[in-house]
Write a structure and sequence with these properties.
- This protein is α/β, with parallel strands linked by helices.
- It is about 35% helix and about 15% strand.
- It has helices at about 25-30, 50-55, 70, 85-95, 115-130, 145-150, 170, 180-195, 210-220, 240, 260-275; strands at about 35, 35-40, 40-45, 60-65, 100-105, 135, 155-160, 200-205, 220-225, 235.
- The strands form two sheets. Strands 3-4-5-6-7-8-9-10 form an eight-stranded parallel beta barrel, surrounded by five helices. A two-stranded antiparallel ribbon has the order 1-2.
- Strand 6, helix 6 (about 145-150) and strand 7 form a beta-alpha-beta unit.
- Helix 2 (about 50-55) crosses helix 4 (about 85-95) and helix 5 packs across helix 6 (about 145-150).
- The radius of gyration is 21 Å and the shape is globular.
- The model has no long low-confidence stretch (mean pLDDT about 95).
- Bound molecules: 3-methyl-2-oxobutanoic acid.
- 3-methyl-2-oxobutanoic acid binds near residues 46, 203, 205, 226 and 236.
């Protein structure tokens, strides 16, 4: 799969096609935070497919091809088994479906932790084979040398602190972080280390609200909350969570639609019509001419 494939607008079902426009850039996003204040908060959502990207792109500043696709798309128990190939395929699709937002792709577990060199080789593959403009990786101060290595070599990086889902086996679950003083202080110092290393943005996930605010105030980079605070510089949610594709939603998710019910109702009606032989109707069948 490669980003050199463009959507074929004459044959693709993915119409209406978005109007070509100038894509936002990482420096433009970074400039939104001036002297510790972000007048216009950054709107970010995950996206995994070309069609999703088309629908989200006009409204978003950042599209994240999250490794949450492990659970959301592939039905895996966590993001740990997600591979670089999965991220490349979905990353390329999201770049093809978008014109406006900065597209960032998650580095999957095992693709960057070993050394800065390993991280560079895999981040470069993500950039070349998807056309994305940035990568995201999890972990705090321990990843700062890797972030600096990538940024110095032309790869914009988003850090990710607090609840880091790739570390679920160490954390023992997906509970909110930062409830003890020591844990809270570590989250803030981790975010600072990533920002000092050159991460243009830091995702802070699943932390008690005062910690999300403290992180936002402590670093110059843009801080994107998920289960954080409205006072972060921006917000991200998993698209399938916010449109209501799943029954179970974490506390920090607001459901803006009930797409699962819409799909379920449509399929129930389709099944009934097939069984009653009322589908296809005249409108859906080809009749001999003349
Ligand atoms: O993988 C993902 O979707 C993420 C976001 C929830 C921040 O990392």
């Amino acid at each position: 799969m490669s980003t050199t494939f463009q959507l074929d607008t004459s044959t693709s079902r993915a119409n209406p096609t978005p109007a070509p426009m100038k894509r936002l850039t990482v420096p433009a996003l970074r400039r939104r935070k001036q002297d510790g204040t972000t007048a216009e908060p950054i709107v970010m959502l995950t996206a995994y497919t070309a069609r999703q990207a088309q629908l989200l792109d006009p409204h978003c500043d950042l599209l994240l091809v999250g490794d949450s696709l492990g659970q959301v798309i592939y039905g895996l128990p966590s993001s740990v088994p997600v591979t670089l190939e999965m991220m490349i395929n979905h990353g390329a699709a999201v770049v093809r479906g978008s014109w406006h937002a900065v597209v960032a792709v998650d580095m999957p577990y095992g693709s960057y932790e070993q050394s800065p060199e390993q991280a560079f080789a895999n981040a470069a593959r993500l950039m070349k084979e998807t056309g994305c403009a940035a990568v995201k990786l999890e972990g705090g101060a321990v990843m700062a040398p890797t972030v600096a290595f990538l940024v110095a070599r032309g790869i914009p990086v988003i850090g990710h602190v607090g609840l880091t889902p790739q570390a679920v086996n160490v954390l023992g679950g997906y509970n909110a972080r930062g409830r003890s003083e020591a844990e809270a202080a570590k989250i803030v110092s981790d975010a600072k280390a990533l920002a000092d290393a050159g991460a243009f943005a830091v995702v802070v996930e699943g932390v008690v609200e005062p910690i999300a605010i403290a992180v936002t105030e402590a670093v110059d980079s843009i801080v994107i909350g998920i289960g954080g605070s409205a006072r972060c510089d921006g917000q991200v949610l998993v698209i399938d969570d916010m449109v209501g594709m799943f029954e179970r939603v974490p506390r920090f998710v607001k459901r803006y639609a009930d797409v699962a019910t819409t799909i379920s109702d449509a399929v129930q009606t389709y099944a009934a019509e097939v069984r009653a032989r009322t589908f296809p109707g005249v409108e859906q069948t080809y009749q001999p001419k003349g």
